[in-house]
Design a protein that fits this description.
The protein has 22 helices and 30 strands. By secondary structure, it is of the alpha+beta class. A seven-stranded antiparallel β-sheet has the order 4-3-2-1-7-6-5, with helices on one face. A hairpin with a 5-residue loop joins strand 29 and strand 30. It is globular and about 85 Å long. It starts with a strand and ends with a strand. 39% of the residues are buried.
């Protein structure tokens, strides 16, 4: 990695400033300064970097593509909603040096980080922040300042005692390993040590049998506990001697509890663990609204970054709103507003690069009407720009197989793996793409007789006339080439559940506003669940949400709506629920609905769980024990220390919605102890999401957000568990965590 490299920082076609970039000695921080003034502009930590992209893989660098070749360009992408850093190196060799060096630095940080790695990084970061004179040593005054920075309000005498114990050289300063000793004394986990000693006969180690007892009695591990115990010792015991004797020390025990295996989230459910051979309508599908927007709905910026971020987050249903552009070139933007525009071809190219970085990727794409010129251009683009994953109806294979079976086959995520479905309007029936025009009027059974049959024939004739009119209108405004691209998710208006059941097909989809969906939930909850057992439904935000705010997706999931579109650019509880639900099953963007929501004759109604013969309520008991190294509130005053509390929120059917919170701990964000027990009754646990929120208590104003973690009830591991907190943007903030004890009883 070169240091002090002169590169161009690019913000737009007209804004290109030269800056010196340098990797600091800790190999964890990069700063850059102005070439003209020599003043340091900014710095960022390697831990903030998500990935590095080579070439013209951002709109900014694409705008200067004629000026700078791709081999000199690269983009540093940060976690969360922080803007990218677009750079142009002086040569291709220089660019490669930075790209490869950054990738090597960020690659070992695959989540979840090991406890040891997090600790080393955390210690080094804090030492450098507190070492004001940069002499590599820390006196007691600097240690006191450090404690404030770390959210610790400690008695001065106690702090001095810890300092003197760690100062082995008696120099009056701490350096190197002395600071590590001080840090370890500071982070002593009394609650974990007490638990360790409860199962350890001599208080110094856990034998293999003692560890097995702990795993069975407290962690409720049922199968292969001896093998699991051996694996944990081999993986987390730092002492070679202890590993050889098959025992676990207190340090190894803590490392296990802070690991993936000690997390509240069942590690087996992080992988692809659900059946992917069910019809699409049997899954909740991660979906975004106006994916191209990264700000508000009226004047916001449209960007391919919206698609990249959504896809990397596991989103499987994207929205592409296309409108006429100059020279017939389709543009993507929010129509009839002042949002900026992106060429359609750039969006298609981006989807080709990023759509299949998760498993079973079958993202849908919505569209608005272009003129025939715009549509023909887009349809042409659909074959020349779209990757091969777009299912060409003119080809052989999946589409012909589906039509040959009379459109009765419901396609599955497994069958659609590495395929892209286009959702939109269509001229005529789906079958007509191959078989020629057909009559969409419903058949009337010969068994019908009397007045009811005659009335049904009259209604069918009226519907047929209306459909002929609609079909003619479609043909006037919709290009045939574009219509042919829609082979499965044909957009149809929703005219009621009875009408849909009588005349719609599983291959069709209706879109409903959040207000319309709420009315149906309130008035016809059970019918809504039954409808979603055989056909797809998409829900979208109210047009009044011009600030890109979100509605709660939970009430839509409660009736089985599959495509619940949210504004991914807006952080908050709603996106926490979305991220929480889809954090399972390999983060593939598909989550199988419970069996009672896949039954077309189900009696389930979320408003009245008693109408459904479920297994009965269960009791969830959560003991909130402690917190570790909680972050400070953003933009807080220097020296301010948080007063943390924990709130547990339950989202599910109305009868299960609840929240409880602990008391707040004054002036301790470093290692607060609550030791409080919260209890909840869940009537439909299959639909419940549990959200843990840490806030900074404020008696005069609204509490400030500190961190959160959300997961489905079905993914909870009982026992003593750590909850690794996430930021408001949904990114990890190691080593911040909660330590809890979970019990589930019927």
């Amino acid at each position: 990695m070169q240091q002090g490299t002169l590169m161009r920082k690019v913000k737009s076609k007209s804004w290109k400033k030269q800056r010196y970039f340098k990797l600091q000695e800790d190999c964890m921080t990069i700063w850059y300064q102005s070439k003209r003034t020599g003043k340091t502009e900014s710095a960022f930590s390697i831990s903030d970097v998500e990935t590095v992209r080579e070439g013209h893989q951002s709109e900014v660098l694409q705008s200067v593509a004629e000026e700078f070749p791709p081999e000199r360009c690269f983009t540093i992408v940060f976690y969360g909603r922080r803007g990218n850093l677009d750079l142009v190196a002086g040569s291709a060799e220089e660019a490669q040096c930075w790209v490869q060096g950054l990738r090597q630095l960020i690659e070992p940080r695959s989540f979840p980080l090991t406890f040891a790695l997090v600790s080393r990084t955390w210690i080094r970061d804090w030492f450098q922040k507190a070492d004001k004179n940069k002499d590599g040593r820390m006196n007691f005054k600097e240690v006191q300042r450090l404690l404030k920075m770390m959210n610790v309000d400690m008695n001065e005498d106690h702090a001095l005692r810890l300092f003197q114990d760690a100062d082995k050289s008696e120099s009056g300063t701490l350096e190197g390993e002395e600071f590590v000793l001080f840090y370890k004394a500071l982070t002593q986990r009394e609650e974990v040590l007490s638990l360790f000693q409860e199962f350890s006969e001599d208080g110094k180690k856990l034998t293999l049998l003692e560890l097995v007892d702990f795993l069975r009695e407290e962690q409720l591990e049922e199968e292969g506990t001896e093998e699991l115990a051996m694996e944990l010792i081999d993986k987390y015991e730092p002492s070679e001697t202890a590993r050889a004797r098959h025992v676990l020390s207190a340090d190894g025990f803590l490392m296990y509890l802070c690991s993936l295996e000690g997390s509240i989230f069942n590690p087996q459910h992080r992988a692809l663990w659900q059946d992917m051979n069910q019809p699409l309508c049997h899954y909740f599908i991660s979906s975004s609204h106006n994916t191209y927007l990264i700000e508000d709905q009226i004047r916001g910026h449209s960007s391919i970054e919206g698609y990249i971020r959504a896809l990397k987050r596991g989103c499987r249903c994207l929205e592409v709103d296309c409108w006429d552009g100059p020279n017939g070139e389709p543009m993507v933007y929010h129509g009839h507003t002042f949002t900026s525009k992106i060429p359609f071809r750039e969006v298609v190219s981006t989807l080709g690069k990023y759509a299949f970085k998760v498993r079973h990727p079958s993202p849908g794409a919505g569209g608005h009407g272009w003129s025939l010129v715009g549509e023909d251009t887009c349809a042409e683009g659909s074959w020349s720009c779209w990757p091969p994953a777009v299912q060409d109806p003119r080809g052989q294979g999946l589409w012909r197989c589906w039509v040959a079976q009379g459109a009765s086959l419901s396609l599955t995520p497994q069958e659609l793996k590495h395929k892209i479905l286009l959702k939109g309007k269509k001229i005529g029936r789906l079958e007509d793409t191959l078989d020629g025009p057909g009559d969409e009027a419903p058949d009337v059974s010969d068994d019908d007789n009397g007045a009811e049959a005659e009335e049904e024939r009259r209604r069918a004739k009226v519907r047929g006339t209306q459909q002929d009119s609609v079909l003619q209108k479609d043909k006037e405004t919709l290009a045939q080439a574009l219509s042919d691209c829609v082979i499965y998710c044909k957009n149809v208006p929703f005219r009621g559940f009875h009408e849909a059941r009588s005349h719609s097909r599983p291959s069709e989809i209706s879109s409903l506003s959040e207000a319309k969906a709420r009315k149906l939930i309130r008035d016809e909850g059970n019918q809504f669940v039954r409808h979603n057992a055989w056909q797809l439904t998409r829900i979208y935000p109210s047009g009044m949400r011009t600030d890109s705010s979100n509605y709660s997706p939970q009430e839509m999931w409660n009736v089985g709506c599959q495509i619940v579109a949210l504004n991914f650019q807006t952080a908050g509880m709603e996106m926490d629920l979305c991220d929480g639900l889809f954090s399972q099953n390999g983060c593939c963007g598909y989550v199988l609905k419970p069996p009672f929501m896949r039954d077309e004759e189900t009696l389930f109604n979320p408003s009245d769980p008693s109408s459904w013969a479920g297994p009965g309520p269960i009791t969830l008991t959560i003991q909130v024990i402690s917190g570790q190294q909680l972050p400070k509130v953003a933009n807080s005053k220097e020296g301010a220390i948080i007063d943390p509390l924990v709130r547990v929120e339950i989202y599910g059917v109305p009868a299960d919605q609840a929240h409880q919170e602990t008391k707040y701990i004054e002036n301790n964000g470093f290692n607060p102890r609550w030791d409080e027990t919260l209890q909840f009754q869940l009537h439909v646990p299959e639909l419940a999401l549990i959200r843990f929120v840490v806030e900074d208590y404020d008696k005069t104003s609204r509490n400030d957000f500190v961190g959160q973690f959300t997961l489905p009830f079905a993914n909870i591991k009982p026992g003593y568990r750590h909850i690794h907190l996430l930021s408001k943007d949904g990114t990890s903030i190691p080593p911040s965590s909660l330590f809890v004890h979970i019990r589930i009883t019927e």
